Amino acid sequence: MNAPFLNDLRTSYSLIERFRSVRMQTMALCTPLETEDYVVSSMVDVSPTKWHLAHTTWFFETFIIKPYLPSYQTFDSRYAFLFNSYYEQAGARQCRSLRGLATRPTVTEVFTYRSYVDEAVENLFDKIDDDCQHPAWRKLEMGLHHEQQHQELLLTDIKHVLWTNPLRPTYRNDSASSLHTAFQRQRWEPIEEGLYIIGNAEDQFTFDNERPAHKTYLQSAKLSHSLVTNAEYSAFIADGGYQTPGLWLSDGWRMVQSEQLRAPLYWEQYNGQWHEFTLHGELPLSPTVPVCHISYYEADAFARWAGYRLPTEAEWEIVANRHSTQQINLQQISFHPSPASDDNHIQQLFGQVWQWTQSPYIAYPGFYPSCDVLGEYNGKFMCDQWVLRGSSCLTPPGHTRTTYRNFFPSDARWQFTGLRLAADG
What is d(CA 115, CA 109) in angstroms, rounded to the nearest whole number? Predict the structure, then answer.
């Protein structure tokens, strides 16, 4: 785990240096794992570590190497069926729920596949040098950010894999931060009524769903200075939050009943005390740490119980733009959320938990997906999902922007998802 994390994908590094750093970081995240850990899928949403390593490699091979390096010889044509995720135009693929059943190729063979494709990318760089006008350039950048997304998914997935093991093995043997801060009265960041611009119009890498920049009108509102904590969420549980149907959306209450939900994912209570499974193993629940691994339904129910609401993504972005310079640059992978500090300014915008908003994941005005295969990257998922903003403690540095739009369905809990409260002005 000593490999350096990227500070910024747009530093003075050349693109090839950024490529090497990102690919090396993915492998570094696998250092604590045993071979057996690489092959397990513990539920439909969880992909095996081996699959993440191969899929990100397939992405470079399929969308960058083959189109722009005519001399390239495909490593194994059968891999496309195994490691295509959801690109219909790229061909047939294995059902997601069956990924954990493919014991071959072996982990060693996947490592060899990665090395083979990495060498091909190096050869491509020899041809395009640092020519940012080359048509492969933007796709290479896309591939790097795609791999960073899978670095975070690799960690959230392996956490679920280790949790489902009765031995409850740990990913990291060092301890999570034991820092506790005194509880603070909730402070608020005001938003004045008016016309604002959100979305990304700058000449830098963004995913297509962050564009175009556009105007939006906001009523006066306010956002809480910090994230909802475990202690606050425990109070919701103790007050019968999971037994009170009036707090829940209809589908959420159906989920609570059918799955017998009583707490966030990874929480367990014994001897009268809550414990939480983390990447550092099972630990007593820290009261001041932001609550995480909650669904949209749970976030919405808590906000209603507390007398507030979830922010819209426009409200979140407007506030984040005021404070992004100080907070984005401080982000680094910490493997578990940390408490807020005793600060009179808004904090925990980035690097703690992804924050649910009440905004449905739909296209911005003027958005059109590209007509090629990569047009399937985001646009076709703009239905029945909610936008989350910020980043989590597992999000790689250099992969965070105020305009970043993460998205998950209402019932997703295995990601590092939490909430920040909002209220009308």
Answer: 10
Closest CA to 356 of 421, 305, 401, 264: 421
Q: Which residue, 21, 17, 16, is CA-closest to 5? A: 21
- Domains of the chain from N-terminus onward: 15-164 (1.20.120), 188-230+289-424 (3.90.1580.10)
Maximum pairwise Cα distance, the chain: 66
Strand partners, 208: none
Summarize pLDDT for 24-73 with one digit per residue, the tens: 999 999 999 999 999 999 999 999 999 999 999 999 999 999 999 999 99
pTM for this predicted structure: 0.94
Tens digit of each residue's pLDDT (9 = 90 or more) over 233-275: 999 999 999 999 999 999 999 999 999 999 999 999 999 999 9
Task: Answer yes or no: are the C-beta atoms of 399 and 7 closer than 8 Å.
Answer: no
Contact in structure between 285 and 275 (CB atoms under 8 Å): yes
Asked if the peptide bond before residue 105 counts as cis, ω within 30 degrees of 0, the response is: yes
Token pair 């993460």 is at which residue?
Answer: 406
DSSP labels, 176-242: PP----------EEEE-SEEEEES--SSS---GGG-S-EEEEE-SEEEESSPPBHHHHHHHHHTTGG
Look at the block and give the residue holding tokens 């499974």: 277
Name the burial class of residue 216, with classes exposed (0-12), middle (13-18) and buried (19+) by CB atoms within 10 angstroms of its CB: middle
- Helix (H) or strand (E) segment spanning residue 272: none
CA distance linking residue 17 with residue 19, whole number of Å: 5
Are 122 and 64 contacting, i.e. CB atoms less than 8 angstroms apart?
Answer: no
Separation between Cα atoms, residue 12 and residue 309, nearest integer Å: 42
For the record, the structure tokens of 228 come out as 């909802």
Helices 135-164 + 49-60 axis angle, to 10: 170
Strands 214-218 and 194-198, bridge-based pairing: antiparallel
Whole-Å CA distances, 203 to 29, 45, 213, 327, 336: 31, 34, 12, 21, 33
φ and ψ of 307, to 5 deg: 90, 15
Closest C-alpha to 159, from 20, 281, 307: 281
Q: 109 is written with which tokens?
A: 């063979």
User: Which residue type is seen at 75?
Assistant: F
Q: Which of 9, 19, 6 is nearest to 118 (CA)?
A: 19
Beta bridge partners of 312: none
Residue 288 contacts residue 229 (beta carbons within 8 Å): yes
